[in-house]
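**Backbone geometry record:**
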Amino acid sequence: MEFMYSAHQEETALDALRYWSSEEDNIYIEKSREKLNFALSREMFDREIEFVNPFRKRFEAECDGDIDF
């Protein structure tokens, strides 16, 4: 979500990376999960995080010039 937000707010990819590694983002993720009422919803949220984390790491590596094809 931050990636899409950044694109519309004239922020750079590096701004998104900084946010992703911030305590603010960690708190947002934690509080978002706490608000889910059903076990299935929490499971789906956890699966989404499992998908997003490798994307974030790959995106950071690419921004650092560490592109691996």
Helices lie at 2-8, 13-20, 23-34, 39-63. Residues 36 and 42 are 6 Å apart (CA to CA). The two ends are 25 Å apart (CA to CA). The chain has a mean pLDDT of 88.
